[in-house]
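Follow-up to my earlier ticket, as requested here are the two runs.
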Amino acid sequence: ERKKQEGKHSLLIINNVKCKIISRAFAVIFRNTPFVNTYKFVA
């Protein structure tokens, strides 16, 4: 929603999210470690 308010196209937003998910998944696989969510949501 934040990027959409900045005027970004929806496909660009979806592509960025896909890349983040894929890169984190590959990092977990190659490092052979569990995923640790360190991102804290700010209300």
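Run two:
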Amino acid sequence: MATPQKLRCLVNKITDHGDHVYTVDLAPERPLPRFKPGQFLHLTLDDYDPSGFWPESRVFSIASSPAQRDYLKIAYSVRGRYTARMENELNPGQWVWVKLPYGDFVIRDANNVALLAGGAGMTAFIAFIDGLPNEFHNNIFLAYGARKPELLLYRDLIDAKTGAKFKDLTPETT
């Protein structure tokens, strides 16, 4: 596993999906260290002084492909003090710090894969799906739920990479 590195990233874009769910596109100031699909990063909003301690941060799954060494994508749902702070303070054009890669939640054998995810938790699988070759025909079963259909993030990417179309199984409520 690669040794984690700390780097500054520019917030390029923040997409508001509604219901306090966001995706964030980051541009690192130097090429990313090598990472594997399923790994995660630490993100801090605070300034980091390399001669000091790492500031308060939160972990997020990396949604971008490891082949993209000049781009990072994360997703989050506001579920506590730090993500509420992100919702209020994070803006395009702002610099943040990340340290990565961490974790070993990687898919080693892609012949038969079952993926179960909910909401922004889908992010853990996106780098894997994004890295699939276009002619990928292996067996992937994906069960993915969210509070509302519009909160099913990355639908276009999943459709394009897996050749599958979402079947909406949203129960009707009265």
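The only thing I checked on run two: Residues 17 and 151 are 6 Å apart (CA to CA). Let me know what else you need.
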